[in-house]
Amino acid sequence: MAPATPPPSASPPATEPPQHTGTALELLVHGVGGATPQEMLGDPRTVRVTGDTTAAVYRRTEDAHGEKHPERYRDEPVAEAYCWSGLTSGNGSRALWLLLLPFMVVNLAHWMRPTATGRTRAVRLYGVLVRLVALSLTVLLTAAACEVALDLLAWQCAGADACAARRSWLGFLSEGQGGWWSQPGRRLALAAVVPAALVGLLWYLSNRTWSAYESQRPLDGEDFGADESFGAAADHGPDADDDPRPSVPVRPALGRPGFWYGRRLVARLRAAHTAAGFLTVAAAVAGAAARHDRGAEGPVPRFIGAAVEGGIVLCALVVVWVVCRRGRSERTRDTRLDGALISYLPGSALVLLGLAVLYASWSRPDWQSSGALPVETAFRFLTLGQGVLVVALAVVARGLYRRTPEPRTVLYGLGGPAVAMLACALGGVMTGGVAQRVADWLDGPGTPGMGRSSDIAGPPVLLSWQASVIPVLLLLLLVPVLVLVVRTARTARRLGPVIEADYAPEPSDEGRTRRIARIRAAAALTDSAPWIVGVVSTATLLLGAGAIAGSWYSGQVPGRAADGSGPLLESFADAAQSTGSWLIGFGFILFVAGGRRAYKDASARRTIGILWDVGTFWPRAAHPFAPPCYAERAVPDLASRMSAWTSTTPRGRLVISGHSQGSVLAASAVWQLPDATRPRVALLTYGSPLERLYGRWFPAYFGPGPLLGLHRSVHCWRNLWRATDPIGGPVRICADPDPSVDRGPLKDPLAYGRTTELPLPEPILGHSDYQADPAFADARADLLAELAPHVPRQAEARTQKGTSGRSSG
Question: Positions of the region Disordered (predicted)?
Answer without folding.
Answer: 1-21, 789-809
